[in-house]
């Protein structure tokens, strides 16, 4: 990086900046006043340096982009230029630039086109993704009935249902909730997400070339993800043995057929390594994000029972009790839809986003960013942008409702990111959240041993992701007249 170019941007120590994003207590902006000097958090850095500035992650300069307008200007208005994916040091030894999430250039474009088309047309005329989610939701209802209203930690249930949807898409089948292989897969995914999240692990991002030689959680993450890859690899081999080209069953079958079609093309990106890493990416992203959002969602329903009650009334009015919820119901349920949007906004699952990289020298807001510059779009700064959300630090479904009670679009709502690197599974996740959320509340009321005013929403961990605090919940079968 030529100092005369990149360092024209305001710059500060990256370790101070990124840690301040994590350690400043959740959504407390700590704006300095006469009586409060502030804590030196990232929100203050944004005020001082503006929406675009440079930080150093160890020896590497990276560009931080804050605020709705700046993020949209980069990821949408200059989408192609900002479409590169920077490395994440803790997972790079496993993925090494392979798979749909971490690839770049033609490899990424080919894998993304294929993945989007395969998931859109998934099933080849058989059960749709919506039907699979509905089926899984009913399996969950039966499982929750067995609890007979006992206190439960919801982690297991929400991980199971979201992982089973990915299993259905990738492997063509769901697993019983007590299947030993399935339980091991859940354990590996959950443990890896929790290990990646803590702020202290960000030290590894700063000095990975040095710290990789020492013991630490990065080694356990590597071991876990490699074990998941072995699980996927075995399934791929079984698919090879039973593949029927006239009737592809799932993502793996479709990929194997594409590999066969392209086998004589030396430029093809459809090889075994990219298959394994794409499946891993779908598992890791599709399981943890949706599961964690559901955990936050039901914690918020316990915290705000009056909001849960309004959702229940809307479910009873639109859906009733004689049929399962369907995706078409969402258009007639604006309040429930707004609540789910607000859960995603408030949970702020990936506050610093996933790092991007510019693909060529570019001008951005008066600065020159050389090709290869790493860029962090701080999604949290949009999701809590006071110019777009009246009370950004409060849980308030009205943020997504207009004066007539209809759902309104908000440009600052970007929990899946935006632009060319928007989350591959956005559509599936939105469907899962609506159908799982409404199916559970159609069949159960929820209760907590803790009074609503005493429920603490502060994350258990904040780092790459926000992990909700542990809590206990009762799923009480609804009594209907």
From TrEMBL:
<keyword id="KW-0408">Iron</keyword>
<dbReference type="Pfam" id="PF00067">
    <property type="entry name" value="p450"/>
</dbReference>
<keyword id="KW-0256">Endoplasmic reticulum</keyword>
<keyword id="KW-0349">Heme</keyword>
<keyword id="KW-0812">Transmembrane</keyword>
<dbReference type="InterPro" id="IPR050182">
    <property type="entry name" value="Cytochrome_P450_fam2"/>
</dbReference>
<keyword id="KW-0472">Membrane</keyword>
<keyword id="KW-0503">Monooxygenase</keyword>
<dbReference type="GO" id="GO:0020037">
    <property type="term" value="F:heme binding"/>
</dbReference>
<dbReference type="InterPro" id="IPR002401">
    <property type="entry name" value="Cyt_P450_E_grp-I"/>
</dbReference>
<keyword id="KW-0492">Microsome</keyword>
<dbReference type="InterPro" id="IPR008068">
    <property type="entry name" value="Cyt_P450_E_grp-I_CYP2B-like"/>
</dbReference>
<dbReference type="GO" id="GO:0016712">
    <property type="term" value="F:oxidoreductase activity, acting on paired donors, with incorporation or reduction of molecular oxygen, reduced flavin or flavoprotein as one donor, and incorporation of one atom of oxygen"/>
</dbReference>
<keyword id="KW-0560">Oxidoreductase</keyword>
<dbReference type="GO" id="GO:0008392">
    <property type="term" value="F:arachidonate epoxygenase activity"/>
</dbReference>
<feature type="transmembrane region" description="Helical">
    <location>
        <begin position="192"/>
        <end position="211"/>
    </location>
</feature>
<keyword id="KW-1133">Transmembrane helix</keyword>
<protein>
    <recommendedName>
        <fullName>Cytochrome P450 family 2 subfamily B member 6</fullName>
    </recommendedName>
</protein>
<keyword id="KW-0479">Metal-binding</keyword>
<dbReference type="GO" id="GO:0019373">
    <property type="term" value="P:epoxygenase P450 pathway"/>
</dbReference>
<dbReference type="InterPro" id="IPR001128">
    <property type="entry name" value="Cyt_P450"/>
</dbReference>
<dbReference type="GO" id="GO:0006805">
    <property type="term" value="P:xenobiotic metabolic process"/>
</dbReference>
<dbReference type="InterPro" id="IPR036396">
    <property type="entry name" value="Cyt_P450_sf"/>
</dbReference>
<feature type="binding site" description="axial binding residue">
    <location>
        <position position="423"/>
    </location>
    <ligand>
        <name>heme</name>
    </ligand>
</feature>
<dbReference type="InterPro" id="IPR017972">
    <property type="entry name" value="Cyt_P450_CS"/>
</dbReference>
<feature type="transmembrane region" description="Helical">
    <location>
        <begin position="6"/>
        <end position="24"/>
    </location>
</feature>
<comment type="similarity">
    <text>Belongs to the cytochrome P450 family.</text>
</comment>
<dbReference type="GO" id="GO:0005506">
    <property type="term" value="F:iron ion binding"/>
</dbReference>
<dbReference type="GO" id="GO:0005789">
    <property type="term" value="C:endoplasmic reticulum membrane"/>
</dbReference>
């Amino acid at each position: 990086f030529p100092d005369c170019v990149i360092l024209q941007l305001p710059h500060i120590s990256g370790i101070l900046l990124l840690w301040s994003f994590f350690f400043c207590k959740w959504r407390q902006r700590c704006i300095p006043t006469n009586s409060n000097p502030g804590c030196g958090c990232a929100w203050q850095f944004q005020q001082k340096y503006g929406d675009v500035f440079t930080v150093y992650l160890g020896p590497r300069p990276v560009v931080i982009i804050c605020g709705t307008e700046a993020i949209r200007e980069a990821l949408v208005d200059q989408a192609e230029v900002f479409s590169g994916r920077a490395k994440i040091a803790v997972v790079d030894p496993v993925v090494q630039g392979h798979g749909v999430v971490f690839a770049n250039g033609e490899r990424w474009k080919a894998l993304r086109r294929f993945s989007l088309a395969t998931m859109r047309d998934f099933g080849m005329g058989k059960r749709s993704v919506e039907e699979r989610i509905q089926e899984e939701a009913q399996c969950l209802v039966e499982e929750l009935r067995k609890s007979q209203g006992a206190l439960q930690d919801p982690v297991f249930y929400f991980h199971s249902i979201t992982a089973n949807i990915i299993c259905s898409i990738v492997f063509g089948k769901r697993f019983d909730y007590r299947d030993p292989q399935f339980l091991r897969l859940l354990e590996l995914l959950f443990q890896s997400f929790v290990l990646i999240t803590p702020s202290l692990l960000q030290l590894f991002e700063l000095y990975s070339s040095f710290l990789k030689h020492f013991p630490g959680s990065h080694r356990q993450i590597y071991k876990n993800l490699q074990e998941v890859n072995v699980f996927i690899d075995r399934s791929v081999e079984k698919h090879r043995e039973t593949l029927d080209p006239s009737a592809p069953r799932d993502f793996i079958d479709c990929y194997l057929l594409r590999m066969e079609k392209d086998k004589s093309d030396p430029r093809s990106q459809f090889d075994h390594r990219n298959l394994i890493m794409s499946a891993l990416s779908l598992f890791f992203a599709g399981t943890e994000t949706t599961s964690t959002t559901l955990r936050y969602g039901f914690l918020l329903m316990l915290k705000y029972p009056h909001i849960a009650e309004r959702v229940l009334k809307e479910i009873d009015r639109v859906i009733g009790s004689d049929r399962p919820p369907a995706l078409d119901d969402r258009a007639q349920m604006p309040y429930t839809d707004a609540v789910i949007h607000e859960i995603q906004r408030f949970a702020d699952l990936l506050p610093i986003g996933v790092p991007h990289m510019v693909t060529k020298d570019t001008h951005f807001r008066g600065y020159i960013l050389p090709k290869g510059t790493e860029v962090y779009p701080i999604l949290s700064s949009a999701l809590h942008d006071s110019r777009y959300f009246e009370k950004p630090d409060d849980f308030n479904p009205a943020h997504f409702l207009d004066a007539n009670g209809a759902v309104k679009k908000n440009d600052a709502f970007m929990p899946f990111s935006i632009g060319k690197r928007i989350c591959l599974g956005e559509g599936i996740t939105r469907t899962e959240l609506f159908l799982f959320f409404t199916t559970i509340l159609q069949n159960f009321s929820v209760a907590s041993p803790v009074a609503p005013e005493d429920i603490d929403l502060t994350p258990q961990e904040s780092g790459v992701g926000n992990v909700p605090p542990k809590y206990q919940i009762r799923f009480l079968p609804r009594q209907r007249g």
